[in-house]
C-alpha cells in the first residue's frame, strides 16, 4: 500500500527509516495529472531502487503570471490510485505553504544548459524548477531521481544542478513515452481538442525528418528553417523554437556529435514541446 504524507518531517522520517534498513531510495518528482509517461519513470525508479517516492506538487514558481497554473489539471485521487497500482511506496503531496512557507526568499538559478530555448519564452521557468527540485532532493535524500527525456532541457538543467552543488545522488534520464502515433505523453495533452490532437501527432514525424536530414549531412540552418515551416504547415499556430543542440550541454550542435532536435510549438491554447535524438554514428 502506498504511504501518503503531506509534511517534510513525515517524508524524512520514512526515508531515513528505510535508509537505516540499508534500502536504496529513488525519487520521481511530478506535478500530478499522471499518465503512462509518469508510470514509465516509476518503473525505471523501481528497477534501480528498493523504495520509490513520488512527489505530487504543482509548483507555482515555475509558472509565469500569464500561464496555466490555475487551469493545470489536478486529480489527486486518480493519481494516488495510479501510484498504488504501479507499486510506489510513498507519495509526498505537500501544500504550497509546506514547500514555500511565509517568508521564503531563496531561489536557485542554474546557468549553462538553461540558456535560451525555454528560457527565451519562459524566463523564470528554470529558476522555479531548480528551486523546487533542489528542495525535494534535500527533503527526501534520495540515492537517485528519475526525470523524463521529453522535458530534455529540464533534464540537462537538473543534471547541472546536481553536478555543480555536489549533491550525492544520481540523475537518471528515462526515454519519452509516446502514443501509437508518436505524440509524446504530456499532462497538457488533455487540453487538446480532437482536431488539435490530430495536428499534434504530426510533430514527432517532423522532428525525426529533421534529425535524419542532419545525420545525412544536410545544412543545419536550412534544415531547421524547413522544420519550422513544416510545423506551421502541419497546422500549429506558432513555433517558439526549433533548434539542434549537443546532447550533454545543449551548446550549439556540431556535426558528428550526438545531439537533439528540440521544438516548442503552440496549438490553440496549448504549448507542446518535444525532442528527438541526432546520432553521431
Automatic annotation (TrEMBL):
One of its GO terms (biological process) is pantothenate biosynthetic process. It catalyses: (R)-pantoate + beta-alanine + ATP = (R)-pantothenate + AMP + diphosphate + H(+). Keywords: ATP-binding, Cytoplasm, Ligase, Nucleotide-binding, Pantothenate biosynthesis. The active site is at 38 (proton donor). It comes from the Bacteria. SUPFAM superfamilies: Nucleotidylyl transferase (SSF52374). (R)-pantoate binds at residues 62, 154. GO terms for molecular function: ATP binding; pantoate-beta-alanine ligase activity. It is found in: Cytoplasm. InterPro entries: Pantoate_ligase, Pantoate_ligase_C, Rossmann-like_a/b/a_fold. CDD domains: PanC (cd00560). Belongs to the pantothenate synthetase family. The reaction proceeds by a bi uni uni bi ping pong mechanism. Homodimer. This is Pantothenate synthetase. It comes from Aminobacter aminovorans (Chelatobacter heintzii). The lineage of its organism: Bacteria, Pseudomonadati, Pseudomonadota, Alphaproteobacteria, Hyphomicrobiales.
Amino acid at each position: 500500500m502506498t504511504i501518503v504524507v503531506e509534511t517534510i518531517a513525515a517524508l524524512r522520517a520514512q526515508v531515513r527509516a528505510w535508509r537505516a534498513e540499508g534500502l536504496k531510495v529513488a525519487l520521481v518528482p511530478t506535478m500530478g495529472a499522471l499518465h503512462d509517461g509518469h508510470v514509465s519513470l516509476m518503473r525505471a525508479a523501481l528497477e534501480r531502487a528498493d523504495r520509490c517516492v513520488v512527489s505530487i506538487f504543482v509548483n507555482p514558481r515555475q509558472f509565469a503570471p500569464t500561464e496555466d497554473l490555475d487551469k493545470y489539471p489536478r486529480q489527486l485521487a486518480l493519481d494516488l490510485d495510479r501510484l498504488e497500482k504501479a507499486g510506489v511506496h510513498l507519495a509526498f503531496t505537500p501544500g504550497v505553504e509546506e514547500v514555500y512557507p511565509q517568508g521564503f526568499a531563496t531561489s536557485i538559478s542554474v546557468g549553462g544548459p538553461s540558456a535560451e530555448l525555454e528560457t527565451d519564452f519562459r524566463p523564470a521557468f528554470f529558476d522555479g524548477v531548480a528551486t523546487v527540485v533542489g528542495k525535494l532532493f534535500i527533503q527526501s535524500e534520495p540515492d537517485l531521481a528519475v526525470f523524463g527525456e521529453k522535458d530534455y532541457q529540464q533534464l540537462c538543467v537538473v543534471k547541472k544542478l546536481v553536478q555543480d552543488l555536489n549533491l550525492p545522488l544520481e540523475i537518471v534520464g528515462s526515454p519519452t513515452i509516446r502514443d501509437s502515433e508518436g505524440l509524446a505523453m504530456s499532462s497538457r495533452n488533455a487540453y487538446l481538442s480532437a482536431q488539435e490532437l490530430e495536428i499534434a501527432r504530426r510533430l514527432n514525424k517532423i522532428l525525426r525528418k529533421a534529425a535524419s536530414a542532419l545525420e545525412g549531412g544536410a545544412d543545419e540552418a536550412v534544415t531547421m528553417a524547413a522544420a519550422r515551416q513544416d510545423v506551421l504547415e502541419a497546422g500549429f499556430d506558432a513555433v517558439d523554437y526549433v533548434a539542434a543542440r549537443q546532447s550533454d550541454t545543449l551548446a550549439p550542435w556540431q556535426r558528428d556529435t550526438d545531439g537533439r532536435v528540440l521544438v516548442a510549438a503552440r496549438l490553440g491554447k496549448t504549448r507542446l514541446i518535444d525532442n528527438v535524438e541526432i546520432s553521431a554514428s
